[in-house]
Amino acid sequence: FVLCLHLLGYTMFLDSNTQRVRFREDLAAANGDASKITVGILGNRFFRSQPTYVTARWIASDGKPRTSYLLTSGYWGLARHFNYVTDLLMCFAFGMTSNTIFGAALPWFYFVFMAILLIHRAIRDERRLLAKYGQDYLKYKEAVPYSMIPGIY
């Protein structure tokens, strides 16, 4: 069970990051025409659909305007920092190797440490992205209301 839980977390970690990268690459290749691309799971092989996203405009440090596309479908429609949840799933599986639920402190230290680190990082990311994208980030937060854990936080 522990190995399956870890592999699930690892697969979702890789797949969610691949989904985001592939979306950006495909959108750039399609000259911004989202009707020509799809997002799905497991390397875009299954459950493919038209992506939804928020267009976020910002000013780079060189003073030039830039545009980013914030994915609001697939894994990234579930939570804005979905990849952090997959990290925590792998850490939780590591803690379960102690063969007790929260009985031995050392194996669970990794999970607790990473939970604190990633929650703090998500909070910092939120502040930084709000400062960078402004109103466009608020639209993104409206489209994807959960920060890390779908339905909870």
UniProtKB/TrEMBL annotation:
<keyword id="KW-0753">Steroid metabolism</keyword>
<keyword id="KW-1133">Transmembrane helix</keyword>
<dbReference type="InterPro" id="IPR001171">
    <property type="entry name" value="ERG24_DHCR-like"/>
</dbReference>
<keyword id="KW-1207">Sterol metabolism</keyword>
<dbReference type="GO" id="GO:0005789">
    <property type="term" value="C:endoplasmic reticulum membrane"/>
</dbReference>
<keyword id="KW-0560">Oxidoreductase</keyword>
<keyword id="KW-0443">Lipid metabolism</keyword>
<keyword id="KW-0812">Transmembrane</keyword>
<dbReference type="GO" id="GO:0047598">
    <property type="term" value="F:7-dehydrocholesterol reductase activity"/>
</dbReference>
<keyword id="KW-0444">Lipid biosynthesis</keyword>
<keyword id="KW-0152">Cholesterol biosynthesis</keyword>
<keyword id="KW-0521">NADP</keyword>
<keyword id="KW-0756">Sterol biosynthesis</keyword>
<feature type="transmembrane region" description="Helical">
    <location>
        <begin position="100"/>
        <end position="119"/>
    </location>
</feature>
<dbReference type="GO" id="GO:0006695">
    <property type="term" value="P:cholesterol biosynthetic process"/>
</dbReference>
<protein>
    <recommendedName>
        <fullName>7-dehydrocholesterol reductase</fullName>
        <ecNumber>1.3.1.21</ecNumber>
    </recommendedName>
</protein>
<keyword id="KW-0153">Cholesterol metabolism</keyword>
<keyword id="KW-0752">Steroid biosynthesis</keyword>
<comment type="similarity">
    <text>Belongs to the ERG4/ERG24 family.</text>
</comment>
<dbReference type="GO" id="GO:0016132">
    <property type="term" value="P:brassinosteroid biosynthetic process"/>
</dbReference>
<dbReference type="Pfam" id="PF01222">
    <property type="entry name" value="ERG4_ERG24"/>
</dbReference>
<keyword id="KW-0472">Membrane</keyword>
